[in-house]
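Sequence, please.
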């Protein structure tokens, strides 16, 4: 039996055991994270050019280099401690960790203090990361792997690039009778279909009312309650340092605007967007935009302080990407310079990744002014 058929059968069995329908967040969890057959767990995931999706680190090492500079500044604000951790959540192919470690090696004092911990649930990605980092000369004394957050991060940065958007979401619809959760069942022909159901814990029927948000009747939306729980938890893990999350999304006032009556939930397969999240189960990525206001509130519940919020474009410019481009161009051919600038513009331009991706920094014991990534355009007031 094909792997896809196995996953489909398992999901159908769970539906039948629960009255014929399961909440979408459970459907998404099985489709992405089933231990053997889920998209991220089965070795099916393809990242980079020609793959299902492309992340910023796969486009250019500039991204990782600039994030390293931000980590160095945080290390300095903390007093340049002898031990400093960078914990990367969901590191994918390991490209970002490689660029971070390679750049850090150019700063001997920081590199001497640095250890990297990769939090990765996918055996396939863990293998890819280990092969890539070990081949570059970074051994077990420098980098280690975990399947969950460590119990404590004494001093350091907890980093996630496109991590929160792939956590399972509660999919909801505002009906004339109030808020309903969207579940998944099977129609008479055996195909997946959405069904409205009563809200399941921890979702509450008055969720939007408590936030002072009016979701119009007929509108759908996604609620990242699992991401909120993670942000609250990470606040209890971090003793001193910064949680730095980069993802596509918006502040709450924009996230639930009238521009998106169907919400933001989409799939990604073979480099193409798939608008039906019930298609290609286990064979495509599923993501939803992040509500950064909700993430900030959750981090505050965990004891973290807001340190900055901006777009990816402004964040990278604050860290000196334009100056770095100018320096790199001096030793490159005109063709290579043109290629690098095109990639950089993809990271920076508003209609590319520059505006769609946002950066949120929250921390504890790291209050020595504005971090460089937010110095040009800190939008914390929007949260």
């Amino acid at each position: 039996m094909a792997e896809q058929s196995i996953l489909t059968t398992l999901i159908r069995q769970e539906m039948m055991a629960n009255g014929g329908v399961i909440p979408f967040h459970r459907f998404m969890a099985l489709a992405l994270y089933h231990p053997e057959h889920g998209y991220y767990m089965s070795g099916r995931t393809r990242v980079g050019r020609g793959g299902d999706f492309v992340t910023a680190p796969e486009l250019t090492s500039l991204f990782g280099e600039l994030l390293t500079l931000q980590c160095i500044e945080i290390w300095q604000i903390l007093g340049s401690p002898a031990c400093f951790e960078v914990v990367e959540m969901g590191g994918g192919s390991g490209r970002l960790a490689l660029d971070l470690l390679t750049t850090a090696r150019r700063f001997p004092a920081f590199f001497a203090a640095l250890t990297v911990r990769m939090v990765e649930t996918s055996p396939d990605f863990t293998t890819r990361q280990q092969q890539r980092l070990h081949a570059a000369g970074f051994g077990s004394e420098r980098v280690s792997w975990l399947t969950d957050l460590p119990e404590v991060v004494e001093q350091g940065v907890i980093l996630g690039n496109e991590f929160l958007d792939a956590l399972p979401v509660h999919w909801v619809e505002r009906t004339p009778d109030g808020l309903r959760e969207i579940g998944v069942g099977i129609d008479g022909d055996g195909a997946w279909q959405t069904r409205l159901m009563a809200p399941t814990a921890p979702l509450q029927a008055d969720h939007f009312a408590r936030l002072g948000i009016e979701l119009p009747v007929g509108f759908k939306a996604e609620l990242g309650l699992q991401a909120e729980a993670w942000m609250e938890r990470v606040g209890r893990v971090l003793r001193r340092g910064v949680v730095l999350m980069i993802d596509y999304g918006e502040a709450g006032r924009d996230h639930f605007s009238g521009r998106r009556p169907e919400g933001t939930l989409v799939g990604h397969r073979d480099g193409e967007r798939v608008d039906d999240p019930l298609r290609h189960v286990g064979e495509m990525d599923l993501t939803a935009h992040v509500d950064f206001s909700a993430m900030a509130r959750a981090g505050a519940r965990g004891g973290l302080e807001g340190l900055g919020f901006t777009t990816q474009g402004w964040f990278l410019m604050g860290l000196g990407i334009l100056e770095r481009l100018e320096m790199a161009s001096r030793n490159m051919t005109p063709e290579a310079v043109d290629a690098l600038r095109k990639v950089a513009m993809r990271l920076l331009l508003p209609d590319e990744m520059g505006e769609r991706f946002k950066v949120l920094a929250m921390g504890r014991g790291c209050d020595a002014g504005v971090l460089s990534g937010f110095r040009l355009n800190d939008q914390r007031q929007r949260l």
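The chain has a mean pLDDT of 94.
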